[in-house]
Amino acid sequence: MTMDYAENILETIGNTPLVKLNKLTAINSYLDYADKLGLGFKNFVDRAPTGFAQFLSGLQFSLGESSEIIIVGEKESEKTKEILSFLNSNFIPNKVVMLIDAENKSEINKIAPFAKDYSTTKGETTVFVCKNYVCSLPTSDTVELRTLLGL
């Protein structure tokens, strides 16, 4: 059986969302699925790695250090918008961002039970920067956030 690389693009890019879901939820089965996907494409990637750049990016994401950034605050507040703007305007490879607000807190807690432990500080939007699930002290300051992210 031959494989046309173009026909299977969805399968090859599918590992990055699976890795991100693992990082956001700490559910290891997502990473297991990404690993199985990788094994399924190993021979093709070995033969033509330049044809699988997105796939290899996802692989690097799963193997390397990541930043899990948890923001707790109301999504429409100016502080939350400032923090999200800061995060979106800087290149931070291998990051996932979770925004927890009153509207989505119960849903987030269902898919990521560890999230129930995070709350605002002094009622202000608060950011937790975690590296491979080890979190820093919370901050609401973008200058300190820059330092925590190594920017």
Explain what you see.
It is a single chain. The protein has seven helices and four strands; from the N terminus they run ααααβαβαββα. It is of the alpha+beta class and 151 residues long. It has two domains: 5-63; 67-148, Glutaredoxin, CATH 3.40.30. β3 (126-131) and β4 form a beta hairpin. α2 runs antiparallel to α3 (28-47), α2 (15-25) runs parallel beside α4 and α3 packs across α4 (53-63).
Backbone CA Rg: 18 Å
Specify the CATH architecture of the largest domain: 3-Layer(aba) Sandwich
Count the helices. How many?
A: 7
- Neighbour order of strands in the largest sheet: 2-1-3-4
CATH fold title of the largest domain: Glutaredoxin
What class do helices, strands and sheet pairing give? alpha+beta
User: Beta-strand level of the residues, as a percent range?
Assistant: 5-15%
Low-confidence segments:
none
| Amino- and carboxy-terminal Cα gap | 47 Å
Assembly state (oligomeric): single chain
Count of spatially separate domains: 2
Q: Note the overall shape.
A: elongated
